[in-house]
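Structure tokens please, single chain.
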Amino acid sequence: DPLSRRPIWALATGYYWARRYDEAIAQSRHGIEMDPNHWSGHLGLGLALEQKHQFPEAISELKKAIETSNDKIWVSFIAHDMALSGDRAGAEQIIAKLQRLSKRTYVSPWLFAMIYPDLGDKEKALTWLEKCYKRREHDLVFSKVWPMFDSLRSDPRYQDLMRRVGLPQ
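Here you go.
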């Protein structure tokens, strides 16, 4: 179905994970043109824009994804962008917010793990990824394709974790 959001979002995600960011941006914008009130296009566009270091635009799109999905937990993507852009204080503020939220409701350890690599804290990133493994978090199976974990790929502990998850080297 050429008018369905799902294939458009899936293609944009595939482009993003393949590091084909210009194509991910184009596909996400196409999805937004079709349905500006659906979260998937805004999320895909925000994630691809961050990899092009267009941080204000990326954060704006991620905020739209949060608003249209009504899923506040995705604020971790904004924290990741802040960390990547050098806004350490902003990222740490969101981490603190997620920690407070985790006292009232479940917050996946993956949401913390994705922020720490770009804060330069490999130890905390790996600690949170190990928590993901122990809790059998489904997001862990995508760790090899998410760009936010690129800085961990050469670490033997990360490689061991990927092996235990069952992801080939």
